[in-house]
Write a structure and sequence with these properties.
Number of helices: 3
Distance between the termini: 11 Å
Largest sheet: 3 strands, antiparallel
Structural class: alpha+beta
Helix content: 10-25%
Shape: globular
Number of domains: 1
Oligomer: single chain
Length: about 80
């Protein structure tokens, strides 16, 4: 079964899981509300081994909506 964005255990109310990233990718994310999590998961819900330090990135749903990005486009992915 696919691991959905809403399944991420670090997700807070009003947030969307955006992606797993490393520090270089983090710096390229322009959302003001971005927040780093601790454990990155793959599409099957397994934690990603820390070969490279990946972490989940969360963004406030409101910021995405205000930018004209439908929440369903983000929340349906894994």
């Amino acid at each position: 079964m696919a691991f959905k964005n809403a399944d991420h255990p670090e997700l807070r109310d009003g947030e969307v899981f955006l992606t797993n990233e490393d520090e270089d990718g983090w710096r390229c994310i322009g959302w003001k509300s971005k927040r780093k999590g601790k454990v990155a998961y793959d599409t099957f819900g397994r934690s990603i081994p820390s070969i490279k330090p990946f972490f989940p990135v969360f963004v406030e749903e409101k910021e995405l909506r205000d930018a004209g990005i439908p929440f369903s486009d983000i929340s349906e992915g894994a």
